[in-house]
Specification:
Largest sheet: 5 strands, mixed
Shape: globular
Number of domains: 1
Radius of gyration: 30 Å
Number of strands: 9
Order of helices and strands: HEEHHHEEEEEHEEHH
Strand order of the largest sheet: 7-4-5-8-9
Strand content: 5-15%
Distance between the termini: 85 Å
Length: 257
């Protein structure tokens, strides 16, 4: 018999499709699919690689918002922002504003166990000294667990005075364009209880590679609780306007956007 019972029957007048042609077509289809997958992977890889940093920036911004809310609640009770730090009768620094706002960060019990009459690093305050607080920790920072990179703006015309409170009524520039707290790089991080913050010069020097806590810049929170991202290319004049509370320079401060 010439007919093979296992061959697919052909329509009269048509030639059988060569097996090699079928294999070639299938190979082309597979290669096309692989090429499309490769293109999609190439497009998605940058987003996948950047997503961890994006998530860290979101968490960092949330920390700053919580800190701003705590400062606002402190102001409701005391009718002023806290001093950058408290001092003893000899003028020696005792405790940071970060300690003073603990009751408004759901840390009232910790606050009540701190001896405010003794320095922040006194053995009497060892328990608090060894406590880690996630709200003061940027997930991108490379610091000891008890350290923070969130520093207050302490400047002659800034939100925080070194040893005296600041009334909100003194802040006449736009609250959304007046910085309260900003993030510095890990190298400038401090223990969260330390009465150490960002000086005016430190802020005006912002933008060098060594002082960028996140790729391209740093987050900062304003009086109204809004978080801004300070890009590395900001002008000194813009930074000066952002830390000023009554400079009538909102137009310059808006250049941050």
């Amino acid at each position: 018999m010439d007919d093979n019972p296992y061959e697919t029957p052909h329509t009269a007048g048509e030639s059988p499709v060569p097996k090699t042609s079928t294999l070639t077509r299938r190979l082309v289809e597979v290669l096309t699919v692989l090429a499309i997958v490769g293109i999609l992977v190439a497009l998605l890889l940058p987003a996948i690689r950047s997503s961890p940093e994006a998530a860290r920036r979101v968490q960092c911004a949330n920390n700053l918002k919580q800190i701003a809310l705590a400062l606002q609640n402190y102001e409701v009770v005391y009718h002023s922002l806290p001093p950058a730090h408290t001092v003893d009768t000899d003028g020696k620094p005792l405790h940071s504003w970060r300690t003073l706002i603990l009751p408004y960060l759901e840390q009232k019990s910790l606050y009540e166990r701190i001896d405010l009459s003794k320095p922040w690093n006194d053995p009497a305050n060892k328990e608090a000294y060894e406590t880690e607080l996630s709200v003061y920790q940027c997930p991108s920072a490379v610091c000891p667990p008890s350290h923070t990179t969130y520093l207050a703006v302490v400047a002659p015309n800034g939100c925080f005075r070194p040893t005296e409170p600041r009334k909100l009524s003194e802040i006449t520039d736009e609250p959304r364009l007046t910085l309260m707290v900003l993030e510095v790089d890990s190298e400038h991080g401090v223990h969260w209880m330390s009465p150490t913050d960002a000086s005016e010069q430190m802020i005006l020097d912002f933008g060098t590679v060594a002082r960028l806590p996140h790729p391209g810049g740093a987050p900062a929170v304003c009086v109204d609780g809004q978080v801004l991202f300070l890009g590395s290319g900001l002008k000194v004049a813009t930074l000066r306007a952002l830390i000023s509370i009554d400079g009538h320079d909102d137009a310059v401060a808006r250049e941050v956007n």
